[in-house]
Amino acid sequence: MAKTTHFGYKEVDIEKKQGLVKGVFDSVAGKYDLMNDVMSMGTHRLWKNYTIASSNVKEGDHVLDIAGGTGDLAIKFRKKVGPKGKVILSDINDSMLFEGRKNLLNHGIIDVDFVQANAESLPFEDNTFDCVSIAFGLRNVTHKDLALKQMHRVLKKGGTLLILEFSKVENQMLEKIYDLYSFNLIPKFGEFFANDEDSYQYLAESIRRHPDQETLKNMVLDAGFEFCEYHNLTGGIVALHKAIKA
Amino acid sequence: MFRLTIEKSLNHFISANNTDLTHIDNKVVSFRVDEIDLTLFFLCLNSRIFVIDSPQHKKVDVSLITNNASFLAIFKGASLEELLENEDIEINGSVNTAQQLASLLSSSSIDIEELISQYTGDIVAHQLGQAFRQIKKATIKNDSSIISTLKDEITTALIAPSRSKFFKGRV
Fold first, then answer.
1. Contact A54 B4 (CB under 8 A)
2. In this structure, are residues A225 and A245 in contact, taking their beta carbons and an 8 Å threshold?
3. B146 in a domain, yes or no?
4. Domain count of chain B?
5. CB-closest option in B11, B26, B57 to A56
6. Where are the domains of chain A?
7. Which residues of chain B neighbour A229 with C-beta distances below 8 Å?
8. Which residues are bridge partners to A163 per DSSP?
9. Helix (H) and strand (E) counts for chain A?
């Protein structure tokens, strides 16, 4: 019997998940930034700013942004590392990389490298980066444990891992409102703005299937990180996990 | 946010001044302030400082137990040896390592009064800050020991009713 995993609320063959996720992101790539602004009412920019502020990235650092999509984190990291540093934007999806490349060029940034890579098998040497980030990407990875081990491997000693991801809402009242919003309005926004209701239905479902704060923290520690703590943002709608390789 | 602000300020200072951290590399130094139930762990790795809430499995190399006043005094540049002599602080581990970190804290211009007031949510931190400024003036004028003056002023600040308590029920 074939092994299965979740794709939103559906159980699918484990080998098929990657292709299904690719389908979602191929479909939404062109409207990704617009939809982020619409769905989060702009709050995703604050979450990302907090992530950058927590990164401790400094001039000359090497940064890997996994599932970097349209490049909004990479743009901010590039400013922090300066000309002596290096930022690599990686994504498994070529449509997202194409959008990221376009976006960075529009910001006048030409020295960020683009690498199409699967987070479960990163094509970088051990102990390469001072910081590895993944924002709203880990949720879509099939084997999260493998991906976390890879992130640990490519980080230098003293390097920081930042995982920004949807998480478990702390307050019951907020959770009810959030459920109503994400299962009723978000797919409608998807239909209206991106002509794609199904992808945004998947988004809402995949958030509920993602490990909660404590579970993810333990997964990060199991991957070899010595320190991991998380900060809930907007009542736990999103959490930033920060881990250090010691 | 409290820890993040300290961490950011320290790393900004380290980066801007190209500070050499080899003497405290891979060390964990803890600060405990009993009066406000605050413990901070400072971990130095990869030429930067991480301010973490728990050392998890890593051994703490030096631990400092302070009171509000001595915690504030450290950020204002007080010598740990003087604080030790006056029994305002307890240090377990290398005083030299602790002093290296303390010097970093005082050099980084962190507005610790503001941070503590946000952390405790009351006015004690501001009273402490005010007391410290008065001490500075007094020590310049009288050339007396900063620590003994600090003790008197801090005691006054701590036993005086806070403004929030004073106004409770009167507004």
1. yes
2. yes
3. yes
4. 1
5. B11
6. 4-244
7. 52-54
8. A134, A241
9. 10, 9
What is the ipTM, given to two decimal places?
A: 0.80
Contacts of A130 in chain B (CB under 8 A): 46
What distance in Å separates the CA atoms of residue A147 and residue A132, rounded to the nearest whole number? 12
Going residue by residue through chain A (246 aa), what tens digit of pLDDT does each one get?
558 888 777 788 888 778 777 777 777 777 777 777 878 888 888 999 999 999 999 999 999 999 998 899 999 999 999 999 999 999 999 999 999 999 999 999 999 999 999 999 999 999 999 999 999 999 999 999 999 999 999 999 999 999 999 999 988 889 889 888 888 888 888 788 777 778 878 888 888 889 999 999 999 999 999 999 999 999 999 999 999 998
b/e code B49-88 from CB counts within 10 Å (16+ = b): bbbbeebbebeebbbbbbbbbbbbbbbbebbbebbbebeb
Cross-strand bridge partners of residue A162: A133, A242
Residue B130 in any domain: the answer is yes
B48 with A246: Cβ contact below 8 A: no
> Backbone phi, then psi, for A150, in 5-degree steps?
-65, -40
d(CA A2, CA B30): 51
Q: Measured between alpha carbons, how far is residue A21 from residues A3, A91, A104 in Å?
A: 17, 12, 24
CATH number at residue B151: 3.30.1050.10
Per the structure, the complete domain to which residue B28 belongs is given by 2-166
- Residue position matching structure tokens 């051994």: B59
CATH of A4-244, one of 3.30.420.40, 3.40.50.150, 3.30.390.30, 2.30.30.240: 3.40.50.150
Can you tell me the distance from the alpha carbon of A55 to that of A42, in angstroms, rounded to the nearest whole number?
21
B-chain residues near A227 (CB < 8 A): 43, 50, 52, 54-56, 58
Could you tell me if residue B11 is inside a domain?
yes
Which of B28, B46, B51 to mutate against chain A (most A CBs within 10 Å)?
Answer: B46
Coil/strand/helix, residue B1: coil
Please give the Cα distance from A169 to A150 (Å, whole number).
28
8 A C-beta contact, residue A105 and residue A120: no
For tokens 């631990």, the residue is B63
Residue B171 resides in a domain: no
Q: Are A105 and A114 in contact (CB under 8 A)?
A: no
Mutate to test the interface with B, among A55, A56, A128 (most CBs of B within 10 A): A56
Compute the distance between CA of residue A110 and CA of residue B49 in angstroms, rounded to an integer: 31
